[in-house]
Amino acid sequence: MKAGIFVALFVIAFITVPLFSLFLASGTLSGEQTASLSEIWNSSYIRRVLFFSLWQAFLSTLLSITLAIIVSRAFARYPNFPFRSFFLSLFGLPLIVPAVVAVIGIITVYGKSGWLPIGSNLYGLFGILLAHVFFNLPLAVRLFVPVWNQIPEQHWRIASQLKFNSTQQWKHIEWPALRESLPSVALLIFMLCLTSFAVVLTLGGGPKSTTVEVAIYQSLRFDFDPAQAVVLALLQLGLSILVAIIASRFNKIPDVEPDLNIKNAKHQSETGKLDKILQITFIVFAILFVSTPLLAIFIDAARGPIISVLSERNLWMATAFSLVIGLSAATISLILSWFLLNASARASYQNKSNLSQWLLLSGSIIFVVPPLVIGTGLFILLADFINVFDWAILIVILINGLLGIPFIIRTLGPEIRQNTMKYQRLCDSLNLKGWQRFKHLDFPLLRKPLGLSAALVTVFTMGDLGIIALFGSPETATLPLLLYQRLGAYQIPQAAVTAAFLLLISLITFWLLEKIIGGKTQRDL
């Protein structure tokens, strides 16, 4: 348990020290630079960035949630849709597709010369909303579909006896069940859109469509204005904490891998012909919306200079950096999370509920602090002592390693807690602990969630653009940064091939880690 407490203190320190450096730099604690920072705070630029950040996050959330309710209800009311399980699995792809890769697909489909051109308006608010809906619609569908599992079967039976039509079923059965989880899912999506970086950086289209996250990056890398970056970082931190406080008042969000099977299919499929046509239309629309940009990436790449790009040394260097950073961050996340979760489970087993909750909270608190805020704090803290760009790889690994902890807590935490409650007495009687316990008990039972955790954190880190864009350089470019640089240089054919390559590498890495580590899970000894 001591190791878990040490990990909790380390995580808290790694977050609070950069934040403390931001407060020092802002003059909040030292009393210096107050006048200049006050001018920055009152600038029209800051107010415009703040308003746009909130506005685009609100619109993105509203669109994603509205469409997700329609689509998830369609899946629930038509459980016999052909290849239904496959398409719901397809909706999991945007969760692991790097944002900058998806942006390439969206440009290919909806850009000025795309398959369904919408003109230059793609760059700006419309393009940002389109990309955010692409990512968050599938996520919300996967979180909403299990809601229909929770509706008691007798409710559907009574509705059938009363001959409820579709509208009445929605009003009296489905909406009461859905509205309980709606606020927490909406706040999750709002937070993701508020802290979105790669989408806004590539599709923002200029100062009028800049969010706080992008403004922080521009202040440090282009304007060389640390004072403005500090104000923006503190502003983003305040917004994130406010959203987190509001979210804490609602029910928890469903697990990462929810049960997507509809149990009450018989009653939910009793719909009229018109209603059935509408449900099919909604499902097909959602499938095309999610799959088309992904398909476009590979079609675009097939037309590009594949041999030329694959023969470039910088592509393989970027691949090596991406894999090293991704696997290293996942290793750090798993090790820290393992000690943290075991200590929490042991504390719970010993009826020390307060300590158990504190340990979990320490691992999840980093979700409240945006990565660029931590990065900015480290940048300000270390700039006077070292050349931060020389230590870019290590900094990116550490930050992403900590960012992976909340994901692992959600995927691995319940399983570790269950194992502890079920087998702790047996382990104590056999004096089974440490490596021997992990080898003979924990690993055989927890292989699947371990594999999923490792795969998620690795792929998320490999696709991250925010932290590497802040600290990276051409010599330490990862695949997302290389792709962004090619987009910025208008090397569109090369960017298309790079995007497809990054997507393939991400999918293969995810599959290999989940299969190699996950293997076959033994549910009982």
User: In which range does the helix fraction lie?
Assistant: over 70%
Number of strands: 0
Radius of gyration: 24 Å
**What characteristic shape results from the CA principal axes?**
globular
Mean pLDDT: 83
Strand content: under 5%
Order of helices and strands: HHHHHHHHHHHHHHHHHHHHHHH
Structural class: mainly alpha
Largest sheet: none
Low-confidence segments: 253-260, 262-269
State the helix count.
23
Q: Report, as a whole number of angstroms, the end-to-end distance.
A: 25 Å
Structure characteristics:
about 75% helix, mainly alpha
How is this structure best described in words?
Mean pLDDT is 83; it is low at 253-260 and 262-269. It is globular, with a radius of gyration of 24 Å. It has 23 helices and no strands. The two termini are 25 Å apart. Helices cover 75% and strands 0% of the residues. The chain has 525 residues and is mainly alpha-helical. The longest helix has 37 residues, at 313-349.
Give the secondary structure arrangement, pairings included.
Elements: H1 2-26, H2 34-41, H3 44-77, H4 84-90, H5 99-110, H6 125-144, H7 153-161, H8 166-194, H9 198-203, H10 212-221, H11 226-247, H12 265-268, H13 273-302, H14 306-310, H15 313-349, H16 353-364, H17 371-382, H18 392-403, H19 405-430, H20 434-462, H21 466-471, H22 479-488, H23 492-518
Helix pairs in contact: 1-11, 1-15, 1-16, 1-17, 3-6, 3-8, 3-13, 5-6, 5-13, 5-23, 6-8, 8-11, 10-11, 11-17, 13-23, 15-16, 15-18, 15-19, 15-20, 15-22, 19-20, 20-23, 22-23
